[in-house]
Amino acid sequence: MANRYNYLLFLGILLISPGVFSLLFSWWVAPVNFYIESQEAFREPGVEFFMGTDDLGRDLFSGIIQGLRNSLLVGIGVTLIAYSIGIILGIISGFFGGMADHFLMKLSEIFMVMPNFLIVILSAAFLGQGVIILILTLGFFSWEHIYRIVRAEVLSLRSKEYMIAASSLGADFRWVTSKHIFPMIIPTVSSVMPLTVCYAITAEAAVSFLGLGDPDQVSLGYLISNSNQFLFSGWWLFVFPGLFLTITITGFTLINFSRDS
């Protein structure tokens, strides 16, 4: 059974490797901005253009490389913001309890019933279509699940004998958190991170598909949306962006599954 989950972890890492490679080396593999470069339109995949060109003569391979990079940046940025908020609030709620716990639990319930995707669309419409705005919006409205996980872990840890002993000996909140709480919640928190990255990548692609993404940054969602009217005349315009979006999301899902199991 362990070998099976190791295999899933390896497969997941293999599937996200194009995205990681794009994040680290897109400046070298696709140095020219996808929106600027223009060649002959509707070139089928071949030696010169590995994935063909689109209706405006832009190299689809460069677009996918830059789109994967931007997707990973959004995923990592949203995860960092959401987990920072969720971990801090979860530790405070679980450690202190009382009115602070009650207030934060009610606040998390409010955030859980909010239509996050609608909020992202409204923020793009009113605040602007920028990657930074998208990351901040998704991150700020995605902390409630990790908050509940951390809170439950801290409530469990608070009743441990070494925690009671540390508090009895005068250990303050900062010392207990850094020495006992934070190291113990990291494995649990890290096990669900891939799903948050998946959510952020999917949301970014969906927003860009609807035309509300950053107009200055390439997105896989934009590439898929742009291919709608060329499904039969330019099959590669839809297949390659959709394929790389699918395998990236699948890769993170497999990593999460292998860690949970």
> Roughly how many Å is the radius of gyration?
22 Å
Q: Would you identify the CATH H-level superfamily?
A: MetI-like
Helix fraction, binned, reads over 70%
| Structural class category | mainly alpha
Share in β-strands: under 5%
Which blocks of ≥5 consecutive residues have pLDDT under 50?
none
CATH architecture: Orthogonal Bundle
Distance between the termini: 9 Å
Number of domains: 1
* Cα shape: elongated
Can you identify the CATH class? Mainly Alpha
Count up the helices: 11
Mean pLDDT: 86
Largest sheet report: none
Order of helices and strands: HHHHHHHHHHH
Q: In total, how many beta strands?
A: 0
**Within the CATH hierarchy, at the fold level, what is the topology?**
MetI-like fold
Explain what the structure shows.
With 261 residues, the protein is mostly helical. The protein has one domain (56-260): MetI-like fold. 74% of the residues lie in helices and 0% in strands. It contains eleven helices and no strands. α2 runs antiparallel to α3 (98-113), α2 (60-96) runs parallel beside α6 (144-158) and α9 packs parallel to α10. The mean pLDDT is 86.
Short description:
The protein is mainly α and 261 residues long. It has helices at residues 2-29, 60-96, 98-113, 116-127, 131-140, 144-158, 161-168, 173-191, 193-209, 220-226, 236-260.
